[in-house]
Structures are given as C-alpha cells and as structure tokens.
Amino acid sequence: QKRDRMHLAIVLLALASLVSCTTFPLKRIEVTREQKAHLRGLTKRDNDIPLQGGIATVGLFYASIELGTPPQPLNVQVDTGSSDLLVYGAQCKSCGSGAKYNFRTSSSYAVVPCDEKGFRCSTCEQFNGEDACSFSDYYGDGTGVNGSVITDMLTVGTYSDIKIALGNIQSSTQNFEPAPVDGIWGVSYPDLAITKPAIFDLFTQAGVYKGYGLCLGENPSMSFGEPSADFQFTPITQVRYFDVQMNDLQVNGVSIGQSNFSETIVDSGTTLLLLPPKIFAALYQGMLSQCDSNSNLVGICGTSLNTSLFGGQCFSIPDTSIYPTLTVVLQPNIKLDIPPSAYLLPQNNQYCLGIAVTSLTILGDVFMQNFNVFFDIQNSQVGFADPSSCPSTK
User: Fold this and answer.
1) pLDDT value at position 33?
2) How many Å is the Cα radius of gyration of the chain?
3) pLDDT of residue 272
4) Residue 137's pLDDT band (boundaries 50, 70, 90)?
C-alpha cells in the first residue's frame, strides 16, 4: 500500500532544488536551573521517556524501546504522521548495519495469520514456515519497506509486557531510516495503519490516558499520562493525521493576507515547516514588507524570491534577533510564536531558512520545538504550552 509518511526525506526532496545544506544546528530556548527544578514537580506525568536525535544531527527524534522476550533494544523514530511500528528484521540484508529485531530469539513472538481481522495485509506469504500477513509500505520520499506482520511484547519506559503488532521489515530501500535509527514508531490514528497501532495497545493494556506529550526542544522527551501543563487546545479536524485548522500566518503580528492553508498537520516526522506555494510566496512578501522599517534583513531586503532565503540561499547574518517573529494562528484563536532563532538554521557559518514548499501545511519540528505539544487522542485535540513546562528526563 502506498502511503505518505511525513518524514525527513520528503523534506529533503522538497528542498533538493533549493538548498544543498543538509544539517541544521539550532539555538535552544534557555530555562534557568531554578525554573526547571520548580517545573519538574508540576509537569511530571505517569511516564516521561527521553528522546534522542534532533534537527542538528539526524533530522528526527527517536525513542529507545525493547521488543520480545528476552527484550531486544531498538531505536525508533517517533512519528505523529504515521501509525505503524516497523523495525528492521535480523533477516533483512538491505537494512543497514544497526540493531535488528530477531524474532527467532523471542519466545513471545507469533505470526499474524492472513485472515486476521483488523489488519490490511498486502498479500499472504510464507514466514518461518507459516502463512503470514505481509505488508508493502511505500512513502512519498521514494523509500519503501516490505515484510511480515507479527506480534510480540513491547517495553517502553516503565511500561512492559505490552502485546503489540509490528512490521518485521525483511527488505528495505536504502536510507529508509538513517543510523542509529532501527525503525519507525507511528503514533497517529488507526486509519493510517497496516498493522494495529502499537500506541493504542499501550493505552489499553497499560491503562493510561489516551494521549502523549512531545517536547522537541532543549530536553527532548515523550510523556504519557493526562496533560498537566497549561495547554491551549485546538480541535482535531480529521481523525487520520493530527489535522488542525490553521487560520492565519503573521509576520510581527501582521497577517500575510492568506486564509487557505489547505490541510494542516502537526507532525514530528517532518523536520521543517512546510507551506503550500501560495502561502510560501505570501510569507516572503510579508517578510519583504519589513524592509520598510528595517533594511538590514540580509537575505530578504533587496532580493527576489529566488535569490533570497526563500529561494534556498544561505547567508552570513550578523544578528538574527532583528528578524521578525512569525505567528501561527490556529482555531479558535491560538497564537503560537516562532522566533527567528527557530526558523533561521545555522549551517557552516551561514543561516538557511527552515521553511520550505509542499502541497499542504505541515507544522514540523522547526515549529514544534518551540512548545510542549500534547496529542490528546482521548478528546480529539492538540495542545500547546510553553516549553518551560516540558518535563526533565535527566
């Protein structure tokens, strides 16, 4: 089945004709030690799991999990833009040199039969001498994986012995997941899944609140349990991806004059902030209008779209703080600021733009890093809080 994964590689594809830089170190919002100590007591949820990776390193965020009996450690990208748990299998020769899941050493694994209800099997194929539900998953970035659907036990954080379905990848195109990542953990709704989403089995079997928080800033983490910070919630408009209604985009508080933001998705599997072409061009014009009062915006003032930051050019910028703050406005009237330190990405002593073009609006990691984001599946809403409310997992 062909599906769209909102993932790093689709971002690189969108940028391929624009910019050659591929790694983007970021400045982080600083919180004092005293603030952290105070907020840890306020925001600790049932289970806070540290995430690794980042925009500056592998362009994604990943969690450490364990599969099988005895447990086998693996790193999986946490992706709110897909719903399957897919991991490299030990028999996969095209899956790179990282860790791989070996079903043969797990006493708790079982094959999912071809006629098992609730699964979208591509075909029925032999797996370890049994007829098994198989999958074929291809993504918008040109990558793809194939394998068999099985069940086994999941351990993540303090939650253990969670029986889940997963895709055991037996063949993969090159660079499906970059090292040291061994698979992908889709944490969106069942409508996107080939298997049954592991995140929902965790909710049910562990008896935890149906939702989780993601902090992708200074101290990346994934948190389970009811939201405890002061979140502003926007309703989910379509139970598939985490679709929300975006009403406006502002430059220093001034609207860019566009209202059709197409489908808008909050997605941890996309590195940058992606906008439809019309919105992207209007944002450039909105930035250009700032030159009337500030002609020192290098890469904006005195440029055309193609020769500017918006054309994929990178520039030496003495002071990023003079650039305007961007504001995303979500339904009903939630205003979420993106400072220039978030959307101007350092690369080789220059700065590149962390915003690119695609067919829909995707609020990726460049956007998400500025907030504590709570994906409230139980109440069909997404919440945003100040990043100072993020838990400490150290």
Assistant:
1) 36
2) 21
3) 96
4) confident
Could you give the C-alpha distances from 109 to 69, 163, 243, 269, 351, in angstroms and in order? 8, 9, 34, 28, 48
SS3 of the chain: CECCCCCHHHHHHHHCCCCCCCCCCCCCCCCCHHHHHHHHHHHCCCEEEECEEECCCCCEEEEEEEECCCCEEEEEEEECCCCCEEEEECCCCCCCCCCCECHHHCCCCEECCCCCCCCCCCEEEEECCEEEEEEEEECCCCCEEEEEEEEEEEEECCEEEEEEEEEEEEEECCCCCCCCCCEEEECCCHHHCCCCCHHHHHHHHHCCCCCEEEECCCCCEEEECCCCCCCEEEECCEECCEEECEEEEEECCEECCCCCCCCEEECCCCCCEEECHHHHHHHHHHHHHHHHCCCCCCCCCCCCCCCCHHHCCCECCCCHHHCCCEEEEECCCEEEEECHHHHEEEECCEEEECEEECCCEEECHHHHCCCEEEEECCCCEEEEECHHHCCCCC
CA distance 381 to 371: 15
Comparing 43-47, 190-194, 310-314, the range with the smallest average pLDDT is 43-47
Looking at residue 258, its amino acid is Q
Instruction: Output the six-digit token pair for 45.
Output: 């949820």
User: Is the whole model's pTM more than 0.85, yes or no?
Assistant: yes
Residue 284 has pLDDT above 70, yes or no: yes
Measuring CA to CA, which residue among 161, 162, 183, 163 is closest to residue 172? Answer: 183
279, 249 Cβ separation under 8 angstroms: yes
Percent of the chain with pLDDT over 90: 73
Q: What is the pLDDT of residues 1-24, one digit of tens each?
A: 434 444 444 333 333 333 333 333
Cα gap 180→15, rounded to integer Å: 23
Query: What is the arithmetic mean of pLDDT over 251-263?
Result: 94
What is the spatial order of strands in the sheet that 326-330 belongs to? Answer: 254-255, 246-251, 326-330, 334-338
Q: What is the mean pLDDT of the chain?
A: 87
CB 27 within 8 A of CB 36: no
User: CA–CA distance from 25 to each of 21, 56, 346 (Å)?
Assistant: 11, 4, 6
